[in-house]
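Structural prep section.
Before we set up the soaks we want a predicted structure of the protein with adenosine monophosphate in place, mainly to decide which crystallisation condition to try first. Input record follows.
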Amino acid sequence: MGEVIGIDLGTTFSCVAYLNGDTPAIIPNLEGSNTTPSVVSFTADGQSLVGMPAWRQAVINPENTIYSVKRLIGRKFNSQEIKNLKSRLPYKLVEAANGDILIEAAGKLYTPQEISALILNYLKECAENFLGTRIEDAVITVPAYFDDHQRQATKDAATICGLNVLRIINEPTAASLAYGFNNRKSGLIAVYDLGGGTFDITVLELQDGVFHVLSTAGDTFLGGDDFDNRLMGWLLEEFQKEHGIDLSQDRYALQRIKEATEKAKRELSFAVETEINLPFICATDTGSLHLRKRVNRSFFENLTRDLVERSLQICERALNDARVKKEKIDEVILVGGQSRMPLVKQMVQEFFGRPPAVRINPDEIVAMGAALQAVILSREIKDMVLLLDVTPFSLGIETENGGFQKIIERNTTIPARKTMAFTTVEHNQRRVRIHVLQGESDRAQDNVSLATFELVGIDPAPAGVPQIDVTFEIDADGILKVSARDVGTGREQKIEIKPSAGLLPEQLDEIVDKWKKEVKKPDDEKGLL
Ligand code: AMP
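Run finished without errors. Recording the tokens verbatim:
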């Protein structure tokens, strides 16, 4: 097996790492930076740009520049989160036939998986260029709180660009792996991960090379973007008050304001005051208008304090689930770019009653952990470290009257499997339908529908006689697999699976074929022979 890599596929930035000897190291991108904007842009002539080149021309080409695709992947067009997000995106979303999301850019429709595949492919090329060898295998990280659809969609994105996924692992677990591996620590660790789009908290126990996740909790719609949006909302309001003009209707202005607020937010992590200065933000009959505002740190902190408080409520839940008192935590690790904000550091410190661990680069540690796990899996160094992760959501089935029966409880160590017996309710019934969902509500409709499984071709028999054992299994990637066995005959029971979202195998094959024709570069073009 050749070189393997670890990829942190972030909402705003991505990062790729490998193992240099026995130390994880970051692979710089083609421009020499350690992190790459998770941005894809399509030019008028149909070319795609990825990373910094895409980001640079976002202002002049906002409707064809796709960012934050991780917020869309594996989600439904009609979900509340997407409804809230849509109005603020300069690019257009369209509903797919199965209710998934499609992105319209340069006159074509793309699935979020295809956009993510372009980012993954760029990172793969960076690694191939840096290491001088072809890369086929990777460990990719996802937020711990990603559900089954989001994980499967991420895996599909890798398949599209020809990357074999050795494992999907959770970002906080990857961070703790890199941290624990370097420091040879033992004890209880809390990983607080506030990235560009998502928040995760994970409580782990580390002992003798075993990384045992006790609980995880999170919010896939809480991250740096929300901090930017608060500042952006304020600027738009102020401008409207002063000039009576709603800049949110102007895509170009919106993109410029988005960039400026993100920059100002970062500056406020180091400076106590900053200025947002956007000349010629719009034209009126009487001339051009400029947007100029001074913002100080405490004002920005007041605008966003409730977002940090929300993250701490989630920490409370994770600690309860782990049955760990916060005083017992030996180390707090901060991950994700947004954790650089002083208010976040301060409130996390107050919450846990101890300062967070130092000498950690929150942008790089996740990719490093992924690289470590890639090497552990590919070289089968199982005795070196053992990762025991958990499933973030309960898995269960719909019962009569729209109820929900949990089969595998949240925070169960994965892989996990559970078998349930099903039978027929009518004489000579040939099919049984099982609706599988993920979530915590007692009502099926409040949870995420994963798929319906139909046990078909059941031998004719009186009601209640056939016994079919159905095994639900969450694999090490956190993805559901279902199998069934007819107990009477011992035969494997046939199942028809109708996933509630995502790409069907034939759709994925079609996209892979298209990719091979339109995007894939031959090895000699990449300098690999
Ligand atoms: P990640 O997904 O971990 O790459 O985190 C990216 C998020 O971190 C983005 O929302 C950035 O704006 C934010 N970020 C990066 N650096 C800083 C900083 N110095 N202060 C505040 N937020 C930051």
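Observations: The chain has eleven helices and 27 strands.
Flagged for discussion at group meeting.
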